[in-house]
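Action item from last week, closing it out:
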Amino acid sequence: MGIVRESFRKMSIVVQKYGGTSVGDANRIRNVARRVITAKQSGSDVVVVVSAMGDTTDDLIKLARQISDKPSAREMDVLLSTGEMVSSTLLAMALENMGHKAISLSGAQAGIRTDATFGHALILSIDPGRVVQEIKNGNIVIVAGFQGVTKDDDTTTLGRGGSDTTAVALAASLGASVCERYTDVEGIFTADPRVVPRASKLKEISYDEMLELATYGSKVMHPRAVEMGQIYNVPILVASSFNDYPGTLIHGGLMEIRNKVTAITQDMDVAKITVVGVPDTPGIAASIFEPLAKAGISVDTIVQNASIQNITDLSFTVTKGDADKALRIVGPIAENVGARECVADTKLAKVSIIGSGMQNTPGYASTMFSTLFASGINIQLITTSEIRITVIIADDKANEASVALHKAFELEK
């Protein structure tokens, strides 16, 4: 992402981002306004990024589907961008009603330029000149999240969770001291508290660990926002907008000494495609995965069994929403290459243990696998990184696995 920086480094700027539940109705918007005023009165200039109110985005999608079975991607982005405009203007009104100067800006007005991938656009650059000028004019600036504009001035949206990315990108471009992300949860926990009641809140977590958590099941932060925070070294505070409890700081500094496993996460949106009886010859994998990539289907875990008499099985995972589409693409290819069959299993989940302290330290995989064995949970696939071990298991065993692993690694301590 290219960033235009002006000579405003002497400003003390805090970027705050409020999620859809935080601005879900008029009373909550007024509550956010009071929190913003408190930050302003503490001596910092405040830039606020907001999501659409409550379920607005889902409601707009449903409305569009009532009009058209296949609405154009461009028009959908124009439609969906209005949700954030509503919440940003209402917050500006609330602040003005409380005696503070405020101005709402669209993503385009805030200088956010993106590519032309409607629905999942990437931020290419930010020119924060307008935002800086409004701050100098004494305004609290509220920016509509989740959106930007192309070089041809077409409105784009950044995909689910895109308001997080807007906030971190603005914080980077403004040289903000921190990006504060307020939502309906109090921070990052060692597991989902709804699944593991004894999960505890983390005081801090590294960018690497948070990126793995966000990628493998945690919905608290969008992966692209975490990645951008790491690239531009923007500390991100995750806290609740409904109380003043300390949150969790995501950063790249020296971490406190703790259990080498930081957290357990699970992802229920998993489907496995298996091509059975594939000839073990060069080019087969390319013939399968290139069409999937062209169709925009993201493939995660890939496992190929050992070849027996030049025949093997090839398995990979996709989201459940992409399973049928993947089958339609891979099925004819499997038949053409002489595979026996192509099958899907959509009743799966990923469960992962994550922690930077796991690097180059033996014993974590064995503890994980023995814990699952003791709980009678069968592992179908395994994938790893330097700081993560992920297993694919039956989805009806995911909660049980998370509870057992949380206890095994003593994360409640």
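Closing note: DSSP finds eleven helices and 19 strands in the chain.
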